[in-house]
Amino acid sequence: MEIWINPACSKCRSALTLLDAEGAAYTVRRYLEDVPTADEIRDVLGRLGLEPWDITRTQEADAKELDLKDRARWPRDDSGREAWIAALAAHPKLIQRPIITADDGTAVVARTEEAVRDALGR
């Protein structure tokens, strides 16, 4: 299992604490330093069963600068999907965190204890 984290994020630190308490084997990816490629983002989205706008932190400064709330410029459908993925790859701060890729090939956005436990059970 791998967990994408930002060490400054309290939700990420909580997820790591729980993984450690449960004795889970995992690798840490500091995704702001080891930025995921567009292909890796597509893979994680497939594992999550989500779209790129579903894992975008729209309150971040980068999101406001890009005007991601402008649905005409950033459609939330197939026509805009690749632009959203490119934005996440170019601005990794926009990626929701933490994301855990489970051993069964799925993934979860692990912002709650329940989500972390769900990943552990997969």
From TrEMBL:
Keyword Oxidoreductase: yes
InterPro entries noted in UniProt: Arsenate_reductase (IPR006659), Arsenate_reductase-like (IPR006660), Thioredoxin-like_sf (IPR036249)
Gene Ontology MF terms: arsenate reductase (glutaredoxin) activity
PROSITE patterns, sorted: ARSC (PS51353)
One Pfam family linked to the record: ArsC
The entry's keywords: Oxidoreductase
E.C. designation(s): 1.20.4.1
Highest rank taxon of the organism: Bacteria
Family that this chain belongs to: Belongs to the ArsC family.
UniProt name for this protein: Arsenate reductase
Organism in which the protein naturally occurs: Streptomyces spectabilis
